[in-house]
UniProtKB/TrEMBL annotation:
GO BP of this protein: AMP biosynthetic process; ATP biosynthetic process
GO MF term set: bis(5'-nucleosyl)-tetraphosphatase (asymmetrical) activity; nucleotide binding
Record keywords: Hydrolase, Nucleotide-binding
Key word Transcription present: no
Species of the source: Mohoua ochrocephala
Coiled coil: none
SUPFAM superfamilies in the record: Nudix
Name by which UniProt lists this protein: Bis(5'-nucleosyl)-tetraphosphatase [asymmetrical]
Catalysed reactions, as listed in the record: P(1),P(4)-bis(5'-guanosyl) tetraphosphate + H2O = GMP + GTP + 2 H(+); a 5'-end CoA-ribonucleoside in mRNA + H2O = a 5'-end phospho-adenosine-phospho-ribonucleoside in mRNA + (R)-4'-phosphopantetheine + 2 H(+); a 5'-end FAD-phospho-ribonucleoside in mRNA + H2O = a 5'-end phospho-adenosine-phospho-ribonucleoside in mRNA + FMN + 2 H(+)
């Protein structure tokens, strides 16, 4: 059976400069793991027994980034499932999209992560070395741009 994990792709909007497009002011939150290859990823984690996927996404975000559900706005209409092998076993990760209500809210990392960054799309794609995560970030950005 596939390992199942869930998380949130979190973004914030900075005050855009008068001449810039609104979408230029979007930054994505990535966390750097404190184990393995120290890869960068949105907050996510394994589903606990009795938990539904969205509960898992919010719990993991609270544990890994210190963000409460009340500090985020879940964006309707976006949900993404990624499928890939981890150590030879299939893994499914389900992501939802959430916006920070206050772009200055402090991030509080757990011991699972050693760093975090707010990154514009291009930099976020560079940090997220896995192609499916890069594609997901680009897809999210297109989704947000289409809603402007």
């Amino acid at each position: 059976m596939a390992v199942r994990a869930c998380g949130l792709i979190i973004y914030r909007r900075l005050q855009p400069a008068p001449s810039s497009k609104v979408t230029d002011s979007i930054e994505y939150l990535l966390l750097q793991t404190s184990y393995g290859t120290h890869h960068w990823t949105p907050p996510k984690g394994h589903v606990d027994p009795g938990e539904d996927d969205l509960q898992t996404a919010f719990r993991e975000t609270q544990e890994e980034a210190g963000l409460q559900a009340s500090q985020l706005t879940l964006i309707e209409g976006y949900k993404k499932e990624l499928h890939y092998p981890v150590r030879g076993k299939p893994k499914t990760v389900v992501y939802w999209l959430a916006e920070m209500k206050d772009c200055n809210t402090e991030i509080k990392l757990s011991e699972e992560h050693q760093a975090f960054q707010w990154l514009k799309l291009e930099d976020a794609c560079r940090f997220a070395e896995y192609e499916d995560m890069q594609a997901t970030l680009k897809e999210v950005h297109q989704f947000l741009c289409s809603r402007e």
